[in-house]
Amino acid sequence: MNCNLLKFSSGFKFHKSLIIVLGKSSFSYSAVSLKNKCGSKGPPWRVMFFGNDDFSVKSLQMLTSKMRTQTIISKVDVVTTSTGNGVNVKNYAKQEKLDIFNWPVNTTLLDGKYDIGVVVSFGRLIPERIIKCFPQGMINVHASLLPRWRGAAPIIYTILNGDLTSGVTIMKIHPRRFDVGEIVRQHSCSVGKDETADELKKKLSDMGGHLLIDSFKELTRNLKYAVPQSEHGITYAPKVDKTLSIIDWNVMDSNLVYNKYRALCGLWPLTTTWHGTPVKLLKVCNYQMSNAKTQLQPGDLVYDKQRKKLFVICGGKGGCVSIEKLKIPRHKTMSGKDFFNGFVYNKPISERKFDNTQ
């Protein structure tokens, strides 16, 4: 059918003849499906979604929900590298019976079939040839208030640095560089002083999904008026590895140790050593010590009998943290109190300390 025939400005006579040709049931399927057969220019929009982990899933869920109602989204397919069990994009897409494509994707699968690409926690640079396949380009849901925390681990660095504010940015995707595109939408939120990276991740995932849908409501206009990122306040959040979990008691103050715990507790426990034996600190709290002894040194372990807490003296700007739960090889997980009674108490006071080198 010629797409030019689908202009509804011809009046009642056109509608009547269309009903005769197509039949009542075909006409009631709406102009949406007819429009899609001829190539959508939206809305509703045809979306190719690029994502992997649980952070991505919330955005995919919301896009899929809108697709089911054929309101602002008419089609959602998925490109992913995720594998394994648990909450990830591939498992959700299978559950919802969405079409799934492996990365890297061939441009012949994209040309003329989609209006826009959406990238959420995908972890791959998108080549220019892929971006050009989408008439509306590609947009990304990023878990920070750009330009702060460009990179792979914005949530971890937000917590690690003790930020009190975070948020989500919807931005345009540029080739060859991560997180530099124009800002389409941005929304902020507060970060609690005891909030963990896992808790913030869930909050920003939900926020990102809602902000993404909000961006689609006036997509053409929102893309047109996207603003360049500021040249000021740029910080970077590169990938992290397990070495970040190591504590140097000499240089790290109590806030840094506690922030490191909040940032990494969903990935790795903080690590230190006790007389050469590796120790995993499974739960750590910031601790206000009363009647501080000035002769204490970084790494020193002190048991507060009144509060029944084991705490560690920190370096840098000082302070201390309490050890709530820990694990050492060949022993069950234990409380700080049990560790003190079983391992620390029998040592001379001068040897009651975690090592400062590993």
Structure, explained:
The protein is an alpha/beta fold and 358 residues long. 29% of the residues lie in helices and 22% in strands. The chain is built from 11 helices and 13 strands. The chain has helices at 12-22, 24-28, 31-37, 54-69, 89-95, 128-131, 154-160, 197-217, 219-224, 254-264, 336-344, and strands at residues 45-51, 73-80, 100-102, 116-120, 138-142, 165-172, 183-190, 270-274, 277-287, 301-304, 309-313, 320-327, 334-335. The strands form 2 sheets. A 7-stranded mixed beta sheet has the order 3-2-1-4-5-6-7. A hairpin with a 4-residue loop joins strand 10 (301-304) and strand 11 (309-313). Helix 4 (54-69) runs parallel beside helix 8 and helix 7 (154-160) packs antiparallel against helix 10 (254-264). The longest helix is centred in the middle third of the chain and has 21 residues, at 197-217. It is elongated and about 75 Å long. The termini are far apart.
Keywords:
single chain, 358 residues, alpha/beta, 7-stranded mixed beta sheet, 6-stranded antiparallel beta sheet, 29% helix, 22% strand, elongated, disordered N terminus
